[in-house]
Amino acid sequence: MAQETLPDRSPAKGADEDPGGAPRRGPGRLRRGLRTGGRAGWPRTLLAVAAGLLLWLAFPPADLTPLAPAGVALLTLALRGLPARTGAWLGFVGGAAFFIPVLEGISAVGPDGWIILSLVQAAYYLPLGAGAAAVARLPAWPVWTAALWVGEELIRGRVPFGGFPWARLAFSQTATPLTPYASYGGAPLVTFLTALVGALLACAAVAAHRALRAHRARAAAAQDADEGAAPPPRAARALVPAVVCLAAVAAVVGGGLLIPTPATGRPVTVAVIQGNVPRAGLDFLGQRRAVLNNHVNVTHELAAKVRAGQVARPELVVWPENASDLDPYTEPEAYNAIDAAVKDVGVPVLVGALTDTPDGEKVENRGIVWDPVSGPGDYYVKRHPVPFGEYLPFRDILTKLITRFERIPRDFAKGTRSGVMRLGPVRVGDVICFEVAYDKEVRDVARGDVLVVQTNNATYGRTSLPPQQIAMSRLRAVEHGRTILVAATSGISAIVAPDGRVVDRSREFVPDIQVATVPARTSRTLSDRLGEKPEWALALLGLGAVGAAAWTARRGARGTAPNTASENEGK
């Protein structure tokens, strides 16, 4: 049998090949890559960039929450039909387009740190992109795609140095129909459903495109045969997969609207103090004294308003992280100032303070229960200090290479016990600063009647990070069915109800007093009882789908090999 001659689709020799036919790896190849957009092509590359930008706009401060599933849909469409390696690259491109703007607040400590952290976070989208491209060949691929997003966040929130779970998909959905699902499966379930809605939208788009192409093909064939247009019933049947996908989206969204978010409980009157930070120009010690004095003075102001009947008398007061960077255990001036303010307001105050460890080698970031009668008592030490911010891994090496790290002369110690403490009439569960992003730390203190987030956002003021932190607190309120008191040194401070509503919210860089009567709750949500199980189950589901896709591809390759060999023998 004569061998069929195939058209030569390879690039012409010359510019990109040497005389022997070997591809050159010089400027010619680079120019071709820029011209074509690499293996993925410019249309898909630009689609991945657009996906990342849509994801960014779904987060505070823009808060265009429907754009999160839309971003997932665009990235899914960009990856569909690609080999895993190309999918990994597009995943990274989309991740970089997302993390660089969403983490712009990190630029306050240096543009290099911001870009490096953003690109490191984008690297977690490499396996996500490869996996999503692989599972797109399987039946029910929107489910497996969504599970892969949970797996990506599971790894990113744990590795390395305890992970960095900022900007998870769930944290863009803090006031949407998907928010109530947090009480069932926590942030991982909200991430899964957000990604599922996006993947289903992509599935509907693919199905509609196929139906349109099929309809045009039938119409063209009918015209050639002079039989008229294709019959409408067949066109309608081709749209069934798209309709099924959209119906599934409606079911997910509608299901969230049916989930109750209780907001009742034993009433307790609380106060949150935001003392603010002083203007620049003071020396280091002067700054620390001024911050403490600000919180002391605002607490005295609260006491005066209570005596004047202007506000209700609180049963507990919360100060933010770093309200006192002077160790009250060793600095008599700091001790006396705090004690006088607590005695004046007459109720226990949770004081955020930095203290030395007993050996003096490290610093502890504490939340101290300060009683108006007995003084400082129980306390919580931050369990998740910030790497490269509050402690320095590989200190001996990095301080020689990067002089900026000399600003961290001592490491912060890691706390070893939960932040559940008695504060006046209730038990509070305390987390400090970016611990609110970690499922485990917040779940551990959800045994308290009220949750507290003590934070210091002064360095990142007027960036995207403070509103993003408030968004996390709103999701945590629903996830655990608890009131959350967010006390920030310079803002944003807030009181969040158990159903995620913001009862009160401060502006940034102004002193503020927030007083409200809120429910203290003891009942546990299903999310509390299930713990990490939903996250691991969904992540393993995605991993299993990747394994199934790889096995299917390998089996397909083996199945075609003998047929190819027999055809060659017959030629």
Largest sheet: 6 strands, mixed
> Could you spell the SSE succession in H and E letters?
HHHHHHHHHHEHEHEEEHEEHEHEEEEHH
State the share of residues found in helices, binned by percent.
40-55%
Based on CA atoms alone, the radius of gyration comes out at: 29 Å
* Strand elements, count: 12
> Looking at the structure, what is the overall shape?
elongated
Structural notes for this entry:
The protein is of the alpha/beta class. The chain has helices spanning about 25-35, 40-55, 65-80, 85-100, 110-125, 125-135, 140-155, 180-225, 230-240, 240-260, 285-305, 330-345, 395-400, 440-445, 465-480, 525-530, 535-570, and strands at about 265-275, 315-320, 350-355, 365-370, 375-380, 420-425, 425-430, 450-455, 485-490, 495, 500-505, 510-520. It has 17 helices and twelve strands. The strands form two sheets. The protein has a six-stranded mixed beta sheet with strand order 5-4-3-2-1-12. The chain is elongated, with a radius of gyration of 29 Å. It starts with about 25 loop residues before the first helix and ends with a helix.
Keywords:
single chain; 571 residues; alpha/beta; six-stranded mixed β-sheet; 17 helices; 49% helix; elongated; disordered N terminus; disordered C terminus
Topology:
Layout: H1 27-36, H2 42-57, H3 67-79, H4 84-102, H5 111-123, H6 125-135, H7 141-156, H8 182-224, H9 232-238, H10 240-258, E1 266-274, H11 284-307, E2 316-318, H12 332-345, E3 349-356, E4 363-371, E5 375-381, H13 395-401, E6 420-423, E7 426-432, H14 439-445, E8 450-455, H15 465-480, E9 483-488, E10 494-496, E11 502-505, E12 512-520, H16 526-530, H17 533-570
Parallel strand pairs: 1-2, 2-3, 7-8, 8-9
Antiparallel strand pairs: 1-12, 3-4, 4-5, 6-7, 9-10, 10-11
